[in-house]
Amino acid sequence: MTTGSIHNKDKFLNNVANRLGRKRRKEGVELPKWSKLPQYEVFDGLSQDELLAQFVLQCDSIHTNVVVTSFEELGKIFPEVIEDLGGKSIVHWKDPRFQEYGLLEALNKEKEEGCSIYEWNPDLGQRNIDKAEQANIGITFSDVTLAESGTVVLHSDNGKGRSVSLLPEKYLAIIPKSTLVPRMTQATDKIHDIAKENGRMPSCINFISGPSNSADIELRLVVGVHGPVKATYIVVDDR
Amino acid sequence: MGIKIGNDKFFERVDKGINDKFMRKAVVEAQSRLEGRKTQTTEEMGNWEDWRDLSEEIRQHTLENLDYYLDQFVENVAKQGGHVFFAEDAAEANDYITSIVKKKEAKNIIKSKSMVTEEIGMNEALEELGCNVVESDLGEWILQLDDHDPPSHIVVPALHKNKEQIRDTFQEKRKYDKSSDPNELAQFARKELRKDFLSAEVGITGCNFAVAESGTVSLVTNEGNARMATTLPKTQITVMGMERIVPTWKELDILVSMLCRSAVGQKLTSYITGLTASKEEGDIDGPEEFHVVIVDNGRSKILGTKFQSALQCIRCAACINVCPVYRHVGGHSYGSIYPGPIGAVLTPLLEGYDDHKELPYASTLCAACTEACPVKIPLHELLVEHRKVIVEQSGKSSFGEKLAMKGYAFAASNPGVYKVGSSSAPSFISSVAKGKDGHGKGPGPVKMWTDIRDLPEPTGETFRKWYANREKERDQS
């Protein structure tokens, strides 16, 4: 990757240091030991089942349907959820988990029954975005799932387009139960580790909590503005 | 637009606000709803004060080492192929932004909500180039369609408008033919703006927090418009105030959590997006080119002064939602894109006292703002500091006011003089109550009061005398 450009840095930062009444700090700054760390107290010590209960509870207040199922039952539940969301056309990530969870097979069946199915394909350029824009349902897996806020965390990648969870009318997230953590803290701790090890950062990390919404008109909640108007989660017991 | 909105004088703006019945009702409802939701989500945490302490420590540490963290941030952006421009003022920022847009030969620009782009008047600069600049936040879009009506709240910009007014605007400007139901209005906006998202060549966003350790820009929204603006256009320009930075993702967690709870009473908003430079090789969506413009525009002057803590602000508007003065006069009265207590503190710092010297007085100093602030900015104390500066140093106050302050300081430290002084007050108040024209309109500081009601004619009795008499009567009974 080519390195980008930086303009006016020294003049600007020297001024900042001057205003702070000292010389520029280019190294040696360490984070202090914070006096309190309340974020780790949230749902501390809860089992995976207890976290799931909290997650389901929270989803209720963010207008999101949750279906909890076993690995074995997923194949049966999946078409029901698709039907409930209105079927028609689906766009989904190119992600090995679709195969692992038997969802490619389930999607093939949908196709046989007349549903249009499109798997994100990095070789086909703009066509992906057009397909996502026209699709009724976008499906992704969750990479990390937050119990406190009812959030799925998605890390972008070649096969994991940003548009899939954004442009279709409805959004469906498949959540392996093992991805459940108490709150945002555990997700950002992991991302911090990637950054610290100078690993490759995903260019886009999305924390999604339910459908898009707005309260800009008289503070009345409207569900569905620019993103999906409806969101559904399927939690799969993968243990 | 710039920081300053409109050319009306302070008292003219306040008069308009006080007489706007719909707006006042809307503000009262909005305040109680937003404040209620915030209280609910913060109380259920059980240890809100610990969260506030931690947030304050994070913000203070970051500001004290701002040059270091900005340096780290921009090096990480550049390492991943992004471009950075440091802008000292609005003109420099706009020059850079317009130069990118020219280079891309872009005509259609989609924006997500950003206070700093309002502050630097970026839209006007792009419109001068002949660009079509579209605001995509629902509230901002409504204001833009309504001939650029200024925002009155930093989180809910169209708070002062009712749904019928919004319907009328849509009808007039976009041939809308449905009802004033917020759902129908929003569905219409969705359809209209979808076309703009798909055709825009450049997406421009603000930045809630930039993460130094990874060169990431984070955006917090409920509508998903910031995601649209950073997924579809080929070029992304992010404009950020220079203080909007956190050291690592761990601190991002804390401040995003505080922002969502304090602003709208949600645990997290629907979308929190972390963007690290342009898309990766092989990615389909996301920008090919990524620019960050870091804006000073008066902020560095605040560093190292007693006002430094004002830069801790995370733009949640919690102070606005509890302010009794905002409740009565509304957002436009402040004459600034930053209203409420934080606006009264920040606006004179960024733009000087000349146009904004009344703002530090637009407060009862009740300290509700300070208590509400998730990053513990001592807002009411900063307002007092402003008053001190205005009175003692800047020479912006009238000679009489200075004399009065000095006289008060002398008298208050000398009880004998104070007694004499306050017994002479009734004759002064009497002249104020009658006003120059004898019709009960007082001058200067009491005008606001006497506009609404007449001052009572003083009886010639001071509180001390009244109290002494009352005690006497009590003894007699």
TrEMBL record, chain A:
Residues 53-236 form the LUD domain. It comes from the Bacteria. InterPro entries: FTHF_cligase-like_sf, LUD_dom, LutC, NagB/RpiA_transferase-like. GO terms for biological process: lactate metabolic process. Signal peptide: none annotated. Pfam families: LUD_dom (PF02589). Belongs to the LutC/YkgG family. Is involved in L-lactate degradation and allows cells to grow with lactate as the sole carbon source. This is Lactate utilization protein C. It comes from Salipaludibacillus keqinensis. The gene is lutC.
From TrEMBL, chain B:
Residues 450-477 have a biased composition (Basic and acidic residues). Residues 385-471 form the Lactate utilization protein B C-terminal domain. Residues 434-477 are annotated as: Disordered. Residues 310-377 form the 4Fe-4S ferredoxin-type domain. GO terms for molecular function: 4 iron, 4 sulfur cluster binding; metal ion binding. It holds the Pfam family LUD_dom. [4Fe-4S] cluster 2 binds at residues 323, 366, 369. SUPFAM superfamilies: alpha-helical ferredoxin (SSF46548), NagB/RpiA/CoA transferase-like (SSF100950). One of its GO terms (biological process) is lactate metabolic process. InterPro entries: 4Fe4S_Fe-S-bd, 4Fe4S_Fe_S_CS, FTHF_cligase-like_sf, Helical_ferredxn, LUD_dom, LutB, LutB/LldF, LutB_C. It comes from the Bacteria. [4Fe-4S] cluster 1 binds at residues 313, 316, 319, 373. Residues 70-295 form the LUD domain. PROSITE patterns: 4FE4S_FER_1. Keywords: 4Fe-4S, Electron transport, Iron, Iron-sulfur, Metal-binding, Repeat, Transport. The keyword Metal-binding applies. Belongs to the LutB/YkgF family. Is involved in L-lactate degradation and allows cells to grow with lactate as the sole carbon source. Has probably a role as an electron transporter during oxidation of L-lactate. PANTHER family: LACTATE UTILIZATION PROTEIN B. This is Lactate utilization protein B. It comes from Salipaludibacillus keqinensis.
